[in-house]
Amino acid sequence: MDNQPYLDLNGVLVQVKFSTLWDSGFYRFQQIRDRDYDYCLCFGLAPFDMNAWLIPKEILDRHVIGTRGQHTGAGSNETWWLEISPSAQESWLDECGNQLADVSCQLTRLTGQH
Predict the structure, then answer these.
(1) How far apart are CA 103 and CA 106, in angstroms?
(2) End-to-end CA distance of the chain
(3) Which residue from 57, 33, 28 is spatially nearest to 45, judged by alpha carbons?
(4) Nearest 5°: phi and psi at 19?
(5) What distance in Å separates the CA atoms of residue 71 and residue 82, rounded to the nearest whole number?
(6) What is the mean pLDDT of residues 73-96?
(7) Are 53 and 97 in contact (CB under 8 A)?
(8) H or E element: which one contains 109?
(9) Model confidence pLDDT, tens digit, residues 36-66
(10) The sheet that has 49-56: what strands, in order across it?
């Protein structure tokens, strides 16, 4: 395994990404890799809010990995990035969260804790 941050939640591997809100109103989660994990947990911190998305790897495979190359455009085969505007996120992210409370509920279900 590479030295990317992973959480092991009862056998479920989660890649963790963090971004602050950029002046243009979006978060940019960088260095997303095509590795062996189950979810990518994206935390976004704004001056007066915090957002989060728990994105299944298969959704990343469809919408990010192979399409949003970080260093070489769409042809990237190593790292990708994801830009999310919390006030106008892409519809494929709707089931993945936005508010921290949404992701908290998803994590509770995922880990089987009440």
Answers:
(1) 5
(2) 30
(3) 28
(4) -150, 145
(5) 13
(6) 84
(7) yes
(8) helix 100-111
(9) 999 999 999 999 999 999 999 999 999 988 7
(10) 6-9, 12-20, 39-46, 49-56, 97-99
Q: What is the mean pLDDT of residues 94-99?
A: 92
- Which residue matches tokens 């990035």? 81
Give per-residue pLDDT as tens, 24-43.
999 999 988 888 999 999 99
Identity of the amino acid at 56 = P
Classify strands 39-46 and 12-20 as parallel, antiparallel or unpaired.
Answer: parallel
Distance CA 110, CA 5 (A): 18
Lookup: tokens for 22:
């950029």
38 burial (CB, 10 Å; 0-12 / 13-18 / 19+) is middle
Tokens representing residue 74 in the block: 């769409």
